[in-house]
Amino acid sequence: EQFPLGYQYKVGSVHDFNFPMKNLGFVGLISMIDPPRDAVPFAVKKCIAAGIKVIMVTGDQPVTATAIARQCNIIKDKTADEIAEEEGIPLEAAIKKANAIVIHGDMITEALREDEGLPENEKGKRLASWLMKPQIVFARTSPAQKLIIVQGNQKLNHVVAVTGDGVNDSPAIKKADIGISMGITGSDVAKDAADMILLTDDFSAIVVGVEEGRKIFDNLKKTIAYILTSNIPEIGPFLIFIILQVPLPLSTVLILCVDLGTDMIPAVAFAYEGAELDIMTREPRSKFAHMVTAKLLVYGYLQQGIIQNFAAFLTYFVVMQDFGFKPSKLVGRILVQGVIPANGDVYDISVDNLGNSHAYCDSENKLRNREGDLGGIDWLFTKDAWVDLRMFFLQCQDGKLVTEDMFSECRLKQISPISHQPVCFTTEALKYAQTGFFFSIVICQIANQIVCKQRKLSFMYQGFRNLFMFYGWAQELVLSLLLAFVIPFNNVLGTRDVIFLHFGTPALVMIVFLIIFDEMKKYLIRNYPKKTEEKFNWFERNCLW
């Protein structure tokens, strides 16, 4: 009756109100809570696993901040306050002992007063000692103190990301290496100061961004490693051509076919490669780290590149052997002078001139040409493709013409689609060997892409979920077959219709070695013992590109 429905309760001050405060009965208690989002605790765990330290800076009371930090997995161990209370020691001693600390804003103010008058290089040591702890919460902090915390982390050479939504957070957001503002609740000032805006206001989106950034960086490194590797089997033939003067194992046109044809789509396929399984368990890379490092160059050039180079040369020499040329006798052949036989001459071991009507031995037992001076053979083009080189590489012994000891048995009776004559003992054998060399690079690059898919884990862990990579392999194999078996390409590019056994198959031994070598290296990176817990093992320090 005294307080009917619709009664107007009024409070003017602590002593001025129109309702009683005595003889009341307890009905209930209402409290309000703003819990962290469900995804935040797991996101913090992922950050910690990825080597990212999460520091909570809040205006709440220390008790509230500690409770929230525990829910979010920022604090796991006993805090310095709890240790000080349990052991009866001063708070400063407990801070030195504890892994988890909760720092009140007044303590930051006190630390700043202690720094007054000190040299610049002596300031901030107390704050730095706090920031070295693995689990940190700053409570009852002001906007100016948030900025001091950011600067303190940057003095320790940390890359600092700051999240915030209010106007008071904008100085710290602006100062951070990566300022992050909330897109829904964030103020316009905070958004203007930020480098990145979270459209959903979800902290876990930052973790997704970190993972995506690491994946992109990884895939770019893999693309570079994949492309660099084929440079060695491309430049190796020219070095051997210049130094040992063997017939050129790979033409410049076929190098362009590799770089602009077969390697293009497989290299792009790395953009579709998923993140490696251990990507969020790695330590963050240094802010001074480059994408192309010495270890990457060693991997691409001196490891995978050298193996590919041996594989391609193995195919080259096998093809030349099958078409009647001893590999050991090819050295120095491009500069040898001889006698080009006449059109229609046919090699015949039963006649004195071996079928070369232009060649003879003079009185000084030297090779001479009835039609003029000695000349060289054209290995690169098809001008001399009709010449049986057993009639060209001649020498005089006791006044008789004999063929030089550089030929072996012809193991493959094949007719060239260009010269329409047998390939054995002609310069057409080089065209077939160059095509086999090209196929070896293509096949080796498929194996190289398999091992480049992962930098640390075995390719068996990652699997083959990148369908675009399969498309790239199919494209380069189809293109290689077209280059080898379509006559117009044969005429323009100098390729030939190699048999299946010359499709880079002699290089399969080296390809298996390439995969096993890389898998063993990754195994040692993952499992070789460390000297200390803080230091990576030798293989990880020196072989992980």
Notable traits:
three-stranded parallel β-sheet, 20 helices, 10 strands, about 550 residues, mainly alpha
Q: Would you write up a description of this structure?
A:
The chain has about 550 residues and is mainly alpha-helical. The protein is built from 20 helices and ten strands. The strands form four sheets. The chain has a three-stranded parallel β-sheet. It has a three-stranded parallel β-sheet with strand order 4-5-6. It has a two-stranded antiparallel ribbon with strand order 7-8. Strand 5, helix 9 and strand 6 form a beta-alpha-beta unit. Helix 11 crosses helix 14 and helix 15 runs antiparallel to helix 17. The model has no long low-confidence stretch (mean pLDDT about 90).
